Automatic annotation (TrEMBL):
Binding site for L-citrulline: 87, 123, 127, 175, 259, 271
Pathway where this protein functions: Amino-acid biosynthesis; L-arginine biosynthesis; L-arginine from L-ornithine and carbamoyl phosphate: step 2/3
Residues that, per the record, bind L-aspartate: 119, 123-124
Catalytic activity: L-citrulline + L-aspartate + ATP = 2-(N(omega)-L-arginino)succinate + AMP + diphosphate + H(+)
Subunit composition and interactions: Homotetramer.
CDD domains named among the record's database cross-references: ASS
Name of the protein in its database record: Argininosuccinate synthase
Species this chain originates from: Leifsonia tongyongensis
């Protein structure tokens, strides 16, 4: 039996041409793997058939939407994961689940290598290969665009010469990646960071400037996971899909950022993640109600590190696993309801309630009859500021 390579297959130009390109360059049979993470677009069966038509010896399709939502998006939500405080890791979260199925398919079919369609300039090459290395260290990772100089112009020529079933007449000026958590758009005129995004870039969200009535939605959480929206039970996948519709209809979740790529360059990116931004806003506020002060303060630093690890392709690293344990522990009491007002591109919390709340009205109120003993504050402040007072005396004496 000939050696095999399993290619992460999207159905687009680069990975379609990559099937023949890989076979020519390595002599290996190519198995195409298409993973459905809620990216929408073409029917997965059509993508599977295209892979076979382009020369794959086998084409495997995996429906990973629920797995993606349960095992990747929900940990990100618990972590309030925003890279550089703004980017909800749209592409970074999908790569480890795809890599997991790459490794599993390679093992099941006896392949000795895997491949992807990433360039040598981006983050995704690292995410795929680092994940595969952690899951199946004996596999070799190949990248035809990067390793075998498969440029886009060469790909177009190759597709034409080999009569590959790829439509090029509607070539997009942008590079787009999307899944159920959001969309990432780059290149084209966006490479000039002075150029403002145009409305044609967006498909998950409506124009926030369009006049419309505000919408309120109540999201119910159980231990950090959304379990109902407006009282209707939902799975994690359904919660994300529904919030994409509701929040996206109000223009929520648009992000325009110059980000620091792992490979060392700065890149201008436009994202839209209506569900991601709205759910994180709600989850963060419920944590404010239910998580002890010192735990909450420490968790914010953990969240930043968690987002950096995932962005940098280290989903399966030891540190990431250890931080997951901490984050899961913080979620034990993150149960309750958050009311969100969605309007003109914003998601604003207007109400919160929880049976696990640490908010005590009788302590917080300024009305007569409160249970907070203000007479204790004077002595507390004296002791709290004592180290500062002692060191200030020393500093003044030395002047």
């Amino acid at each position: 039996m000939a050696e095999r390579v399993v290619l992460a297959y999207s159905g687009g130009l680069d990975t379609s041409v990559g099937i023949g390109w890989l076979k020519d360059a390595t002599g290996k049979e190519v198995v195409a793997l298409a993973v459905d993470v809620g990216q929408g677009g073409e029917d997965m069966e059509a993508i599977r058939q295209r892979a076979l038509d382009c020369g794959a010896v086998e084409a495997v399709v995996v429906d990973a939407k629920d797995e993606f939502a349960n095992d990747y998006l929900m940990p990100a939500l618990k972590a309030n994961a925003l890279y550089q405080k703004r980017y909800p890791l749209v592409s970074a979260l999908s790569r480890p689940v795809i890599a997991k199925h790459l490794a599993a398919t390679a093992k099941a079919l006896g392949a000795d290598s895997v491949a992807h369609g990433c360039t040598g300039k981006g983050n995704d090459q690292v995410r795929f290969e680092a994940a595969v290395a952690a899951l199946a260290p004996d596999l070799t990772s190949l990248a035809p665009v990067r390793d075998f100089a498969l440029t886009r112009d060469k790909a177009i020529v190759y597709a034409a010469e080999h009569n590959l079933p790829i439509e090029q007449s509607k070539k997009s000026p942008y590079s787009i990646d999307q899944n159920v958590w959001g969309r990432a758009v780059e290149t084209g005129f966006l490479e000039d960071p002075w150029n403002a995004p145009i409305e044609d870039l967006y498909t998950y969200s409506e124009d926030p400037a369009t006049p419309r009535e505000a919408v309120e939605v109540v999201i119910s959480f159980s231990e950090g996971i959304p379990v109902a929206i407006d009282g209707k039970p939902v799975t994690p996948l359904e919660a994300v899909q529904l919030m994409n519709t509701i929040a996206g209809g109000q223009g929520v979740g648009r992000i325009d950022i110059v980000e620091d790529r792992l490979v060392g360059i700065k890149s201008r990116e436009v994202y839209e993640s209506p569900a991601g931004i709205a759910l994180i806003a709600a989850h963060e506020e419920l944590e404010n109600m239910t998580v002890e002060r010192d735990v909450a303060r420490y968790k914010r630093g953990v969240e930043s590190k968690w987002a950096e690890l995932v962005y940098d392709g280290l989903w399966f690293s030891g540190l990431k696993r250890a931080l997951d344990v901490f984050i899961d522990e913080t979620q034990r009491h993150v149960t309750g309801d958050i009311r969100l007002k969605l309007h003109a591109g914003t998601a604003v919390v207007t109400g919160r309630r929880s049976g696990e709340s640490l908010y005590d009205f009788n302590l917080a109120t300024y009305d007569t009859g409160d249970t907070f003993d203000q007479s204790l504050a004077k002595g507390f402040i004296e002791l709290w500021s004592l180290p500062s007072k002692i060191s200030a005396r020393r500093d003044l004496a030395g002047q």
